[in-house]
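notes to self, project folder thing:

trying the whole complex as one job this time. last attempt i did each chain seperately and stitching them together was a nightmare. two parts in total, labels are on each line so i dont mix them up again. if this works i'll redo the older ones the same way
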Amino acid sequence: MAVWISSIALGGAAGALLRWAIGHFISTQTSRPGWWATAIANAAGCLLIGLFAALPDLPEPLLVGGFCGALTTFSSLALDIAMLTMQGRYRLGACLALGSLTGGAGLVVAGLAMGGPL
Amino acid sequence: MKIAIAVAVGGACGALLRESIMAMLQGVLDPWVALLCVNVPGSIAIGLLLVALELRFHKAGGSALKALPLAEALRYHPGLFEPDPTMPATELNSLSGRGKVWSGLLITGLLGGFTTFSTFSFDLIELLRNGEIAAAAVDAAISFVACVAGVIAGMSIQIRRAIRCTARTGR
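result (full assembly):
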């Protein structure tokens, strides 16, 4: 139980920090809009969750529930889509939603394939 | 540095909260339904919190809310779109610094760590691999529609509340 709690807390802290660092990099080093950061973090997390699921004997609470869970986020993605929608940028909002849906699923499959035969 | 610590603490708490809820719902609900019970409330909360933090800490003007049609009614809210004239510059800076720490703790950390996209995508693939195409389609549709609607609902509730407060103070 104590191992479970500390694994998830540690993985969650690391995942959230990496997502924040990606956002910090995007906003200070590039001129891309903020939704790119969430999209990149989500894409990386989807690839990793597939890879982790395919590899044997990994500490799942640390890597999956903690790290991948906190690296990716649905609330910030929904916030990005909601902001674009409320600004009337429906096409970009729909592209972000559909791109996240198909890209996320595709990257899970890619991660699974990287870890071994499907 | 303060922001990074806030993000890490928030992320740890958010991930723990999510995994505890998922563990409690295990065997009660399908995993993808249990995840909806995390992602949808998390999205409503991010809408509520984003606007609450902007109203509380944005005193130097140029708030991101300006782009929203709903925000038209907030144009007299001091500090949101124009710098708050009643505040000294030092206070403006320390307020926006504190706002970044709170936003790192609650939005990037807690709610970002609480809600998750990787498990959602993984569950979708599992459903598809098991031939449960209808469940996968329902999961995808409900997740996006309910979370985006939840954000908009959360933001609208806070904006309406702020408008009522401004009206009461007679500004």
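what i see at first glance: The longest helix of chain B spans residues 133-168.
need to look closer tmrw
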